[in-house]
Write a structure and sequence with these properties.
Blueprint: E1 2-6, H1 10-27, H2 30-37, H3 39-42, E2 47-51, H4 52-66
Antiparallel strand pairs: 1-2
Helix pairs in contact: 1-2
């Protein structure tokens, strides 16, 4: 039902970092601060959970746009 993918897209990595930064600003999270302080290593531990049906729809959409 889902696939686990590594985060490689720069925009997705940037969005994840912004979400963690916002979380830290709202909650003063020590865990969030540690992640941001060691971002180059921390980001490698995240995975993207991609529903297979949604992935198929995105692929069909990309193919329709390029056709």
């Amino acid at each position: 039902m889902v696939e686990l993918e590594s985060l490689e897209d720069a925009s997705e990595i940037g969005e994840l970092r912004q979400l963690i930064e916002r979380h830290v600003s709202y909650t003063d999270s020590a865990v969030g601060r540690r992640l941001l302080d060691d971002w180059p290593n921390a980001v490698r531990r995240f995975v993207k959970v991609m529903p297979t049906d949604y992935k198929r729809v995105l692929k069909a959409r990309r193919e329709a746009v390029s056709a």
